[in-house]
Amino acid sequence: MLIVTIPLLTLLLSTWLAPAKRLWELLTIQSLAIAAVSTTWFYVKGTLPALNSYLVIDEISSPLLILTCWLTAPTLLASQSKLSKQPVARQRAYIFTIIALQATTLLAFMADNMMLFFIMFESTMIPTLIIITRWGAQKERMLAGIYLLFYTLFGSMALLTALLYFHETFGTLSMTLAKDLYVEHTSSSCMLTWWSACFVAFLVKMPLYGVHLWLPKAHVEAPIAGSMILAGTLLKLGGYGILRIAVITDDSFLSPAAPLIIFSLFGVLLSAILCSRQTDLKSLIAFSSVSHMGLVIAASMIKTEWSIAGSMILMISHGLISSALFCLANTSYERTNTRTLILLQGSQILFPLVAAWWLMAALLNMALPPSPNFIGELSILTSLFQWSNFTLLITGASIVFTTAYSLYLFWSSQREHLPPHLKFLMPIQTREHILLALHIIPALILILKPELLF
User: Fold this and answer.
1) What is the Cα–Cα distance from 81 to 90, expressed in whole angstroms?
2) Of 356, 437, 75, 123, the residue nearest 223 (C-alpha)
């Protein structure tokens, strides 16, 4: 615990104390060192108490903690070109907000006490809101901030009420102790209401199709670091919360969850169809996140060994690949000042190496075997088929549309004829290749050893 806490505090201090000329380099190197140290959490077995048992690290939280630490350095690398032209005070404030957001997310993943988890879960909204509304590109960023705020607050009130009721009934909010307490009250309607109230907040955060409207708006208006953190780690807080609550409840909640599982699978299909109709690059990638998270929701509800392992693998691989897609979208946007797909076509002629990154990211996103996305989706689809044979129809159609929009994304942004206005663009920098390598290479390495995430 202290191995990462002390460097994180040092990183927050360095934001204000580092010399202006070497600000970005120093902080990127520091965050890469933290990411390297955090990989020791892969070997956590059982529950590891970190601080008076308020913070713990176990098999569910450790891969997500590593992902959060790993994505800090790429967010700084991606923001460097745009932000380095601003006054130094603004640069420091921006970096501080990003690191504070990552630190809050880390604490949320570590929290053993449910009330501490709730506080950290909600605290992540404040830096996110600041990043979107202060550094967003367009005037609609205020509307995106309002959507984010009200959707999240709506779900959170139900969660807070549920936690207060749970403490009143059982006398504890410790997740470790609560695992043994569910036997008495599972069948009561009061516990069913509690279960529903808990899940509302997590389903909004995922987000479930139907309460997803805040996500495309937030992604489109956020600066690159905001989009990367939102797709990479913040959406995973919802999945993590569902997995934690699933441990406390037993299988008697599976029958009330059946309509939700079916709805989330239809959400996967509908959002995949919507992706095929998008004209905005960032909006397409945002809707693809809704599609992937729908599978995670369905798998987390079923609660078999394979479905939980599959949802964990899909969350981690989605965090890397979706963040990489946003980085690629940003490289195009910084040079052309547009996100409209029809105006970006033919980029492969100018930037063949970037087209190779695009192809790899698109193939990993559509779950090409033997990618981590494929391993996760296969585990989820197997457990869904065991739950009900009819799910094969919906998931089969979803796979077809996922393949279609991934290829559409690559084809419409890289192939076709080059428009006349794109013939004089800045070359791609080494920094951007390093940034993409930090996303794609870990995803490829996980193919060799996927049991790290099981």
Assistant:
1) 14
2) 75
Listed in sequence order, the residues at least 6 apart from 445 whose beta carbon sits closer than 8 Å to its beta carbon are none
pLDDT at 82 over 90: no
Q: What is the pLDDT of residues 193-208, one digit of tens each?
A: 888 888 888 999 989 9
List the structure tokens of 329.
Answer: 């979208």
Q: By C-alpha distance, which of 40, 49, 48 is closest to 7?
A: 40
Residue 389: φ, ψ to 5°? -65, -25
Please, which residues have CB within 8 angstroms of residue 32's CB and are 6 or more apart in sequence? 73
HEC secondary structure over 378-406: HHHHHHHHHHCCCHHHHHHHHHHHHHHHH
Q: What gap in Å lies between CA 114 and CA 306, rounded to an integer?
A: 26
162 neighbors 115 (Cβ within 8 angstroms): no
Of 253, 244, 156, the C-alpha closest to 205 is 156
Mean pLDDT for 66-75 is 94
N-to-C CA span, the chain: 22
Q: The pTM is what?
A: 0.94
3-state SS class at 442: helix
DSSP string spanning 164-195? HHHHHHHS--BHHHHTTS-TTTTTSHHHHHHH
Mean pLDDT over 336-357 rounds to 87
**What's the token pair of residue 177?**
């102790």
Give the pLDDT confidence of 211-245 residue by residue, as tens digits. Answer: 889 999 999 889 999 999 999 999 999 999 999 88
**183 — pLDDT class (breaks 50, 70, 90):** very low
Contacts of 386 (CB under 8 A, 6+ apart): 304
Separation of alpha carbons 218 and 142, rounded Å: 10
Q: How many whole angstroms separate alpha carbon 173 and alpha carbon 364?
A: 39
Cα→Cα distances 275→181, 285, 316, 339, 409, Å: 43, 8, 21, 15, 9
Q: Is it the case that residue 184 has pLDDT exceeding 60? A: no
Residues 6+ apart with CB under 8 A from 391: 262, 265, 381, 384, 385
The beta strand positions in 123-175, using DSSP E, are: none
For the stretch 394-448, pLDDT in tens is 999 999 999 999 999 999 888 877 777 777 788 888 999 999 999 999 999 998 8
